[in-house]
Amino acid sequence: MNKLYPAESLKAHPPYLYPGYASTVKRSPSRPLVVIPATLSELTGPVYGQESIRENDDDLTRQHAAEPVGERIIVSGRVLDEDRRPIPGTLVEIWQANAAGRYVHVVDQHPAPLDPNFTGAGRVVTDAEGRYRFTTIKPGAYPWRNHPNAWRPAHIHFSLFGPSFLTRLVTQMYFPGDPLLAYDPMWNSIPEERARRRMMSSFDLETTQPEWALGYRFDIVLRGRDATPMEEPHEH
Prior knowledge:
This protein has 5 helices and 11 strands, in the order αααββββββββααβββ. The protein starts with 6 loop residues before the first helix and ends in a 15-residue tail after the last strand. With 236 residues, it is mainly β.
């Protein structure tokens, strides 16, 4: 087994094949996975400098000529290892739909308006305490044709890079109290209820700024028994 990704981490992740999530039927492996030993590319890699991050990459509401439409929010948290120690210098990227539930992408053509002042992408590097922080707009729900009357709950995609580009992890952050979660096969593909809750943000009054924006906290644990579920298991 690869020591970089302990087996207990896999219990939090969804299976490759989950029939309720239709596209997994086509893209899941049909043969047993091959274990590949870690090589130099997994153990070493690029060091991210400040030149990788542009001004306002952490504030998605200030990337254009005017502010986007929607509810302004602040999302902050820490990136942690299995012992809840901070992981500094991690490149964290997010992408999301706008307040109307539409992405700036040619594939997304459902009848919701695009916002000329919202691209929906940001990036930041964690500080010495593993902290990150984004200012953005709360995303809207959107239809996705996976099953009859299918709607995705409001969510923000997170991508995290480890010591190399081959150690990229991807997850999604959800919002508390969303009624669509009960119907969402991506959410329900996580085997354990406790693991699902690790993808749920929590309202945070300390992060909230008076007369400006509500705050949400979302800590990300990269491995171990408390690992945040990722879109694919990474021990293969």
